Every structure is written in C-alpha cells, then in structure tokens.
Amino acid sequence: MNEKKFIQCKRMISTCLKMESSGINQGTSGNLSIRYDKGFLITPSSLPYDEMKPEDIVEMDWDGAYLGPRPSSEWRFHRDILKERSDIDVVLHSHSLNATALACQHKTIPSFHYMIGLAGGNNIRCAKYETFGTQALSDAALVALKDRTACLLGQHGMICLGKAFEDTFALAIEVETLSKIYVK
Fold first, then answer.
1. Alpha helices of 31-104 — where are they, by DSSP H?
2. Active site annotation includes 130
3. Which end of the chain is more exposed for a tag (fewer CB within 10 A), N or C?
4. 75: number of CA atoms within 13 Å, CB side?
5. Which of 59, 74, 130, 176 is catalytic?
6. How far apart are the C-alpha atoms of 31 and 122, rounded to whole Å?
7. Average pLDDT by consecutive 10-residue portion of the chain (184 residues)?
8. What string of DSSP letters covers 97-164?
9. Which residues on adjacent β-strands are paired with residue 94?
C-alpha cells in the first residue's frame, strides 16, 4: 500500500471511530467513503470500526470492481454520489438515533432552525424507502441530495457529504442535533 492510500485509510478509520464515540453510529451499521485515485475508498462490510486496519479499507473503481475485502453493502450510493457530485469528496452514512427516527417516519426536516442551511437548502429531505444496498436506494438518495449536502433515507438513516472528513463529520453531528431538536 502506498503512503498516500495508507494515510487516507488511517484518516477514514479515525473518522469511523469518532462516529461511534459520538453516538451517531452503532456497531457496523454505518459506512464512509472518499474519492481516491481513479475511484474511491470505502469501509468494508460488517467489520467493527475498532477492529479495522488500513488494509481492510476497500479500493473501488467506478464500475464496481474492488480490491480488498467485501465493500460495504451501500457501495452503490457512495459510488453514484461521488460520480455525480464533483463538489464533494466524502460520503458519510450513519444510523444516528434521532435522524433515523425521522427517517422511519419518512419526515423531511423543515427549516425550523437556521442551521438547516448547513445542508445546502431550506430543508433536509427524506428519500423514499428502498431496500438497503440496491441501485433503487442509490437513485432515491441522489434525488434527495439534489442541491443538498445531507439527506435522510426512508426507514434507514442519514447521508452527509463534504470535501473532507472533518467537515462531513461535523455536518453529520449537526444533522443529528437538528433531528433531536425536531423530534422533541
């Protein structure tokens, strides 16, 4: 593994550990990707973050071919978002409690608080329900993310987008905070 990839993989693992310690993700349910070389890097399927090593991070190309262990089951929406959105480099997906509660009710978060604007518009849309890991879910996510950097996934969780791990993680924390306020 070259040094550039090793550094990105270490940063991914660090962000995943922050997702877990912050409470926005539990167990192996979320995933993370970053644009890399001629494709992207993504977390593997079903591996706890605290056991993850740089060599466990999966390198994928735009056709879905991969090097390494089996990629996250959600690799399709990571690939499609990164292909469609040249303005972002990181895709973070989590199952935070309050955002997922709203997603299970198919609720869009309206502009009840000015911080909604961090997601790129006057609301945080909820994508229609589609089965996890499918192309249909990826397509629904792209619709909900049009002109936005965050969305909820019907009966599933949230997606946040950014240029770097730090800003994408910060947005995910904000979406969960807004979700918690809105639920109350």
1. 75-84, 97-104
2. no
3. C
4. 23
5. 74
6. 26
7. 95 97 91 97 95 97 94 97 98 97 97 96 97 97 98 98 98 98 92
8. HHHHHHHHTT--B-SSSGGGGGGTSSSB-EEPP--TTSHHHHHHHHHHTTT-SEEEETTTEEEEEESS
9. 158
